[in-house]
From TrEMBL:
GO BP, sorted A to Z: proteolysis
Entries under InterPro entries matching the protein: Aminopeptidase_N-like_N (IPR045357), Aminopeptidase_N-like_N_sf (IPR042097), PepN_Ig-like_sf (IPR038438), Peptidase_M1 (IPR001930), Peptidase_M1_dom (IPR014782), Peptidase_M1_pepN (IPR012779), Peptidase_M1_pepN_C (IPR024601), Peptidase_M1_pepN_C_sf (IPR037144)
Enzyme class: hydrolase
GO MF entries: alanyl aminopeptidase activity; metallopeptidase activity; zinc ion binding
Keyword Zinc among UniProt keywords: yes
Organism domain of life: Bacteria
Domain (Aminopeptidase N-like N-terminal): residue spans on this chain: 25-190
Protein name: Aminopeptidase N
Similarity comment text for this entry: Belongs to the peptidase M1 family.
Function as written in the Swiss-Prot or TrEMBL entry: Aminopeptidase N is involved in the degradation of intracellular peptides generated by protein breakdown during normal growth as well as in response to nutrient starvation.
Names of the cofactor(s): Zn(2+)
Domain Peptidase M1 alanyl aminopeptidase C-terminal: 572-898
Catalysis: reaction(s): Release of an N-terminal amino acid, Xaa-|-Yaa- from a peptide, amide or arylamide. Xaa is preferably Ala, but may be most amino acids including Pro (slow action). When a terminal hydrophobic residue is followed by a prolyl residue, the two may be released as an intact Xaa-Pro dipeptide
Amino acid sequence: MREGQPTAVHREAYAAPAFCIDTVDLTFDLDPTKTRVLNKMRLHRNPDVAAQPLRLDGEDLNLARVLVNGGGTSFKMDGGQLVLENLPEGPEPFDLEIFTTCNPEKNTQLMGLYVSQGTFFTQCEAEGFRRITYFLDRPDVMASYTVTLRADKNKYPVLLSNGNLVEQGALDDGRHFAKWLDPHKKPCYLFALVAGQLVAREQRITSRSGTEHLLQVFVRPGDLDKTEHAMNSLMASVAWDEARFGLPLDLERFMIVATSDFNMGAMENKGLNIFNTKYVLANPATATDMDFGNIESVVGHEYFHNWTGNRITCRDWFQLSLKEGLTVFRDQEFSQDMAGVASARAVKRIEDVRVLRTVQFAEDAGPMAHPVRPDSYVEINNFYTVTIYEKGSEVVRMMQTLVATPEDSLGRAGFAKGMKLYFERHDGQAVTCDDFAQAIADANPGSALAQNLSTFKRWYSQAGTPRLQARGVYNAAERSYTLTLKQSCPATPDQASKLPFVIPVTLGLLNRDGQALPLQRAGTADSALQQTLVLTEASANFTFANIDSEPVPSLLRGFSAPVVLEDGLNANDLLILLAHDSDPFNQWEAGQRLMMQSAVQALTQDITGPVLSDELVTALRNVLRHPGLDAAFKDLALTLPSENYIADQLSVVDPQRVHALREAMRLQLATALQADWQWAWDAHKHNGAYSPDAQSSGRRALSGLAMGMLCIAAVQSGDDVTPGRVYQQFKDAGNMTDRVNALSALVVSGHALSHDALERFHKLFQHEALVIDKWFALQAGAPDRAGDVLPRVRQLMKHADFSLRNPNRARSLIFSYCSANPAGFHRTDAAGYVYWSEQVLALDAINPQVAARLARAMDRWSRLAEPYRSAAQVAIERVAAKADLSNDVREVISRALN
Ligand code: 0A1
Ligand code: ZN
């Protein structure tokens, strides 16, 4: 990995494998410092590819023996690969046996086989299997696996791998074994094993079609009381995939195992999902509503991969979004369906779009911008990005929108037909994004997708966030309204100019009283209150007939395409949408746009005095007090755009000014609406039993926001009574959501009680790792009042509970500071950047994947104002100067400096 110059891999260079692996028989003698791996494979030459040597990938392995058809053979090593040149010729299968050892305890990068708290785990996606044995480590080589695990019975009583347990028993010397057989062929990135002291929550289920399955959630002893929600989420996922897509569970047994040392969220290994504890363990005392929601969606996500990813997998890693974008789309739909009523679904949609716009749009505008299907990469681990995942999901969502018909206005039935065809054509194969799009289009002939498929696929090949400009002209004499839509897309690192995208624009028109107007396209008969226009060219006009007065357009409803909309609406138009739009997404968006307009004006025109107009404050009060709106929606509508999102609207960013401005806006809202916040807090407090459902979590969210606002106003006016009450709620809280909201209200307002509260919180939860992560994150993310956050972060690095080796802990402290606390991080003395460079280098020596993620905290350095910009450059160059950087960090840093 650190040998030689990193070289880029190119999508165009794809070549089918020269050999196929039919069966793999693996035997593991598990030992923390020296695990022996016997790998017996049956291979044959790929008849479609010219004869060539067999090149097997390997990394950090000790090779002891290679046998071909039971006999010795010559081989050579080339750049880490094991090369076999003298293999039997002809089409007949042959046996290859490879014996290696590895050291799981030394494996701090958590790829391949590693030990976490005395338990063995594996992580093979994307290229970790080569750290277990020599193999064709590529997703288009699919084989049948048999796995035998042998280990000390006392230390490792539970031995798990993919598929079905076919044999187990005792061995000499207190050891035992278990043999697993996976009935499905799979690529090696879906291989997994787990061995250790674990306990399981079990559930037997019967599918719609009558087959029986065993579901298991494995955790460390003592954590069983935190597995109910994960199990419920898993059962719901199984039922949902069958109901919505007709996709049943294809295994007798489906297992989830939790580990506290994991680079990502979770992994969809066939039948044996391995999860970060953060996305499994929850009870009301230790987990927040957000944790409960994340668990539901990650459990769903990994489960849905069983079909989208595992049954049909990726031909090569450039096609990663084939499985990830589609599976995120599926988990988002699942969570929406679980939320239930339309208003709760809309809240989930708003939350998803907020992530897309703050994180993915920023990625698209920075040095790491890449298409949903990249053309090249140096380190594939750097491409598990919000572009592949979240933008990829938006691309799938647009396909659904574009197969809609009058009878199936959302396109769900058409999309499900497309999925059915996709599985009919490709089940058991390793395919491309093109194959997926083709199946959806072919199942819906005549749809807007089928008619524009090749143009639509530019969403896969072109990076960057398109700009959509919309202007409407009302013609009173003709009683018509003509909307002109124009699109463009800014240049990205490897793509200077772009061709037009296919952009579905869902819209409605309102009159100035806020009433919805029927939309009758000139020359057509049907009229509806909402339509989807499809822009396929650089620009187009759309005319609506029978419009009696100048309307207010509500465009891009539900965020129908991942674009930046410039509709030229003024504050009055937006106030109408905020008060009346029937589309909850656009109603929320109108409020955000009004707040953003105020912020950008204040920042660019140096306006002093109150930032938010009286009209806007009144409109927000009306939303807060509205009897017909959900608490969860109100929480989102009254939350200001984040500092990072405000910064994204500016060409030159002074993070301190953005911070000061947002603080001023928040203080204004806190004081102007003080009585309303008091009402909101009182009216939404709830003392009954905890349930994570959408309605009750919405109430907690709004009461939490209200409490935070009240604390801010109180600190401003020197009132200690409110913070005292908040402290009381912190102590009495019946669940973690209310407790953390109270704690965070105190920390954010800077009230003196926050110190006591933090100390008490640590004492109460010192044995709950996931709660201690929250404790670190809260402090690292606290508003920086006197340059005191960085010294506190440095102090916390020395805390007995801190460890750089545990990714969750490193993220909770270091990432919370560098990525989620702009004003604490971007210091005029550059000390934040110095800290960042130290931590990137320290982490790189332990875990390059985590280090590379941290490196990305500086992605947008070049648009910083001075003195930040120059100081940031120096810090990045300091990292770049290190000779033996991992490929992971090297790729991120060199792109940042280019
Ligand atoms: N396929 C997983 C994500 C994942 C990718 C790489 C990993 O290696 C460290 C782990 C997980 C998912 O989409 O959930
Ligand atoms: Zn995934």
